[in-house]
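Exercise (ungraded).
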Amino acid sequence: MKAPVSTAIAIAAGIVVLLGYFIPYEGLVSIRTMMLRWAIILAAFALIVGVINLARVHVGKIKQGKAQAVYSVVLLVSLVITVITASYFTPTGTWSLWIFNNIQLPIEASLMALLAILLIVAGVRLLRRRLNTFSVIFLVTALLVLIGTVPILFVGEIPALRLIREVIVEVPGVAGARGILLGVTLGAIATGVRVLIGADRPYGG
Amino acid sequence: MAEIRCPMCSKLNPPEAAVCQFCQARLKPLFVSPFTNEGNSRDTGKKDDARKNQGDSALPDWLNELKPEDETEYPLDEESELPDWLSESGEMKDEQDATEGPEQPDDSSGLPDWLARIRKRSDDDQVDEPTKAFEEPEAEEGEGFEDWLSEIGRPEDVEKVFNITNEESPLGESESNESEPDWLNRIRSRKQEVEGVEESTTFSNEEEGAELPDWISEVLPSQSEEPLVIEEQPDEESSDWMPELTTPGLSPESNTAEEVPDWLSSFPSKDDAGIEPDAEQIPDWLASVQSEDAEEPTEKEVPDWLKDVGTSQVVEEGQPETLSEEQVFEVSEMAPGTPAWLSELDRTSGSQPPDISSPAPALEDEDIPHEDESFLVTPDLGTAPDWLDEVKSEDAGEKAPGEDAGSEAGIERAELPSWLEAMRPVESVVLSTPIEDTTTARLEKAGPLAGLRGILPAEAEIARHRKPPTYSIKLQVTENQQAHIALLEALLANEDEAKAVPKPQSLASQAFLRIAVALVMMAAVIWALWMDGSYLPAPSQNIPVEVFDAQRLILGLQANAPVLVAFDFEAGLAGEMEAAAAPVLDQLAETNAVITTVSTSTSGPLLAERWRSSYGEDGYSRFFNLGYIPAGQAGLLAFATDPRAVMPYDLNSVNVWDSGPLEGVTSVSNFSMVLVLTDNPENGRAWIEQVHPLLREQNVPLLMVTSAKAEPMIKPYATGSARQVSGMLSGFTGAAAFESINSGAVSSGAAWDAFGTGTLAAVGLIFVGSLVSAILAAIAWMKQKPGEEVI
């Protein structure tokens, strides 16, 4: 073990927070709350550190004079403008919201629109690439859920399609989701236990 | 006397019969221990009792089996029926007594002439022989242990005795040298030479006598009255069974008739030695011998086995220990349980009977002549016949007159029986590795080893070099192997041939497809927005229960109720999420709820401001934006536990907790409702797991507005018996259903139409495109040649 001190601190913190869930002792709750506040501060500082690191990396790229350095210049300029605007006009200021509403949000929404187009293209080409039973089942299920989500144009709502959609979403969909949740929960427990016993040390050491 | 039952045919015979009248088997044994008669038993009653108590256990098994239970059935007064020579053998003890004291009568009158002459010679020898070498304490004599028997179990003493007898004979030259065999004369001559040593040896058998087995004492009783005092240390390594078999203070004299087998009891005692044997009871073969002795009683005519007996008796007369030494030698050579008759047979079979004139004296260094230390060499008992041959060869040049006389008399040299010869420990004297005969080996002629044979010839090995043989390198291949070789060559030849690469089938341009799909989708959405005609009706059927619950809970809020709204979705999904959350937020605003917004996403605070700014120029006045909660689930838990401490100020750096509608809020459970707007299932699950436990304590409802993507993951929390999410709306459809419940129509008709039109366009594109793709794939599959792969 390279860093026994950090490992001991991590294990002790995890045990104290875990006991605070199950033992309603005021001392444990206070300690847990204090540690959680420390976590929030550290996470916020980590975010700032991340932003600084991002700027540093792109500065390095600009210094190297590569062909794609222009994108790094755009990123750094945008970062500086946004930070200055939000700092000067507050985050909820007019210019800050303008930047958000007219630059950030349309860009991200466009990415989602492109994603929709790509998903449709993939659905069209699916049977061309892989003509088998599961591909057909996948496509049929997707079409039924989509067509049952909204009323049909000029026709209106078809209760049968709506019912089929609900069955697909609530039975196999929810079943699969529950299975995934159970797996995620078990994985989280196992990960927590490994961290508590020092088997996993994501903090290093 | 009762009739005698033949041991062979079990038929009754008259008591005076010596042989069976029916089968001619001998009815009475030839050899009888001479001390088993009544007159010979001088033991006291006490000793007799002790001997009787231990006699059964001391006797060997074979002798116990022969011993009758009631020995009184065989009275001992039947010596008269024995032949005189056998009676003489039993009188050895009496004769010894005669030499010791005048009270013993001279019983030699009953002996045959030839035995009498032998005895006389022995007496003469005894006169010349120094007898002072042996101490015979009377105290130990009463114990009845012979010294020679005491030597049993002491191998070192036996070796000494044997050495002495081998080197020197204690007997002086006797008158019978001429008539005795040469080997006996040689032994006696050697004994004479070693007498000087014997004079200084003393014996004590105080302790060793107790180690004598009883059966040996019984068989050899003649020496019991003359125990020798052996001054050597008692043998501590004696066998354990020997003390057990003997009782201290017990002499062979204590043997009673009850302990003696019947065949031994039938032998005459010394007291009866003077009784003339009944001529009628003497066996024929003995009668013939006796008659021959009467006519020509010479030593030459005495049989070997009888000669041994006579010799021992002669020696006994002059020096009683002589016989004991012989027996010691015999017993030491043979197994401890070997009976006397076997020892006698061994002696007669030609093995060297050492003529021991002194009983295992304890030799001292000063008593041993230094010039004659060769007698200390331990002889190999197993090679007795060999050394006898050697002695004979050494003495070949000086043949005794008696030997010539014996050979002339036709006495053949004794030979070992095959079975006894097989028992000899030949391995102890035979070399494990035979000596190589080098007489024919190569003789070294040069160098320092010249003249030696068997030298390793180094030069010869070097000179032996020659041209190595030539072997054929032609490979011997069978037909089967040739067939395999041909097959392998064919495979390798096919490997070199290039396979035909299938032509890649031409596909439609992916760019064209993407553009076509995008154009169709954009056309559908734009057409719906441009028409703004509310072509699509609001969903009115199959509305989920959680939508109704959400609507009911919002309507149940009181005015100015603090409601915590979490904007946990990304800006890219703002189109869907804002459309889905707009009906709920509008209804909250209608109820004048105090909306406090937080977010675990960095875009959440701005999205909240974006929503607030949608209410006129000043926005929604009863609104507090606390901003971003870092640290993910940990921060969320901390905020749920103590919101004042985690988020003390809003984005405008105003403390919203000390005054206003949030003055009494100290925990997340103090809010009237918690509404989560999320497009990420993980964020929704974090709120359910970290915040809902606190809300459940105060029965604070938790509502969720999710995207269509997160619906399947969040819906399990909103359904079932243990519902953690009190109400839920998902996507455009949920919002339309919510609006349908509230007002019967969708407020944002253009967006709803665009959503519906775009969804239908996507379904159409996927359906048509998949159909075409399937047909093309089927055609390609039908055109596909065997081995070709469709790319």
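Further reading is listed at the end of the chapter. For now, observe: Residues 26-64 of chain A form the longest helix (39 residues). Chain A touches chain B through 65 residues (CB under 8 Å).
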